[in-house]
Design a protein that fits this description.
Its EC number is 2.7.13.3. Its main location: membrane. This is histidine kinase. By secondary structure, this protein is α+β, with helices and mostly antiparallel strands. The chain has 2 domains: 84 residues, no CATH class; 158 residues, Histidine kinase-like ATPase, C-terminal domain (Heat Shock Protein 90, 2-Layer Sandwich), CATH 3.30.565.10. It is built from 12 helices and 7 strands. The strands form 2 sheets. The chain has a 5-stranded mixed beta sheet, covered by helices on one side. A two-stranded antiparallel sheet has the order 1-3. Strand 6 and strand 7 form a beta hairpin. The longest helix has 54 residues. It is elongated and about 125 Å long. 16% of the residues are buried. The model has no long low-confidence stretch (mean pLDDT 84).
Amino acid sequence: MILLFLRERCAWIVFFLSLLVVINGLFYLDIGLAGISVGYFNLIIIILFVMFLIWRYFKETTQLKNFLGNIFENNNIPEINGELLSPYQRKYLEHIVTILQAKDLRLNSMKVRTQEDTEDVLAWIHEMKTPLTAMKLMIEQVDDYRIKQKVDKEWVRINYLLDQQLHNTRLDTIEKDNRFETVTLKPIVHKEIKDFQSWCMEKGLGFQIDGLDCCVITDKKWLSFIVRQILSNAIKYSYENTDINLYTEMDAKGHLLLHIKDQGIGIPDEDLPRIFQKSFTGTVGRESFQSTGMGLYLANNAAEKLGITIFVNSKENVGTIVTLQFPNQNEYQHILGR
């Protein structure tokens, strides 16, 4: 800070030194002055100039710090230590405040428009739920089993995408929507599997479930959403007539781990570091029109809000294991305190 101050006052220093050289030149021409007197004069002048620079440094930096500390709390230029800013400083900083206030107005306007857009999307999704419910009832009345299964699969996909968009819209306000409670994993997993039943039957997929009677403290609705995204990917990329395994275990630090393992096409090593990025479909996704690149992104973001960590291990043409690591008791208390 001091070096920057001196650099900005370089013109002052050059002018002072130039003036001192001129004065010393005049003293040199006057042979009546003793050299020691000239030396004392130069020393006193230099000390006074240094003291002046120190005084200006502390005065200006103190004023600037106080001004910047209050600039967002006042509509007008504030007083600093009982003194007004100099006219030049006031004019300059008034212009800065005007720019900041204009930017603040634009930001508030954008926030209002964003909120309105969010509300419109939520209203549209809820409106779409009504005809979807009616369609589901109509599908149940179809007698031809093959047609019924194919139509139901497409209904599941539409409902899944709407639900994904609904939670995407609400993701930024998840803290306001959280309700932590003791949740048993088995009912949540069974419900999500049942919702994908027609899709699984078409591909001939089975499920091996083990050790899901344990409980965790989390938000039930958002945990269901996370499991839904992971199960959807497991079903989508599994080979036909294979099994998807779901099981739990405890790690060395007391974390409960929920593993979801499929036997499918897997994820290439070069894609693994980017699978949680928004809209990243990867090598496999680019070959499938069904991939949106949003599932793992949304699941990971929601999991972070709940204190859940997602790990993914995959081997190409073998399968993928997605692991949910739930917080232990101490970490859970920290989450509640945020």
